[in-house]
Write a structure and sequence with these properties.
Lipocalin, mainly beta, 10 strands, single chain, 10-stranded antiparallel beta barrel
Length: about 150
């Protein structure tokens, strides 16, 4: 018996479209200096970030993969999650991303965490001005300016 079964490929979650504002290369200034770049992985399910920064005299290099978690046989997670892989010290850091209009929020660990970034995109989308906030009153200003 020869049965033909139609299979429809899954599509990326629509909330990922808010991350398209990040695609490109950005110069970082404020409390951190260097460059970061974002590009979509083939298929559009994940955004990849490459980081080459300096903060407090320390080099930070690595890759972050941003998208919905989807373990085998399960539905995608509700939140946009990421993991950063540091090439210089082997650290792995987890984040939750949220884009609402021109506001980008990135929580360290889980949504609602006391460690987070909150920034606003300029009207032309070429500047992201915000701050990282850490528990206990720490943090720094972070300005991203698109260079390509």
């Amino acid at each position: 018996m020869n049965e033909h079964v139609e299979y429809e490929l899954p599509k990326p979650n629509s909330d990922l479209k808010g991350l398209k504002k990040l695609v490109g290369t950005w110069k970082q200034s404020g409390g951190v200096n260097g460059e970061i770049s974002y590009e979509w992985m083939e298929g559009g399910f994940f955004l990849m970030q490459r980081v080459d920064l300096e903060q407090y005299g320390q080099q930070i290099k690595g890759v972050e993969i941003i998208g919905h978690l989807q373990p085998f046989g399960e539905a995608p997670s509700n939140e946009i999650r990421s993991r950063f892989y540091s090439s210089l010290d082997g650290m792995t850091l987890d984040y939750v991303y949220e884009v609402e209009g021109d506001t980008l929020t990135i929580w360290g660990g889980e949504k609602g965490s006391p460690a987070y970034f909150k920034g606003e995109f300029s009207n032309d989308g070429n500047v992201l001005n915000g701050s990282w906030v850490y528990p206990g009153g720490g943090g720094y200003e972070a300005i991203s300016t698109r260079i390509k």
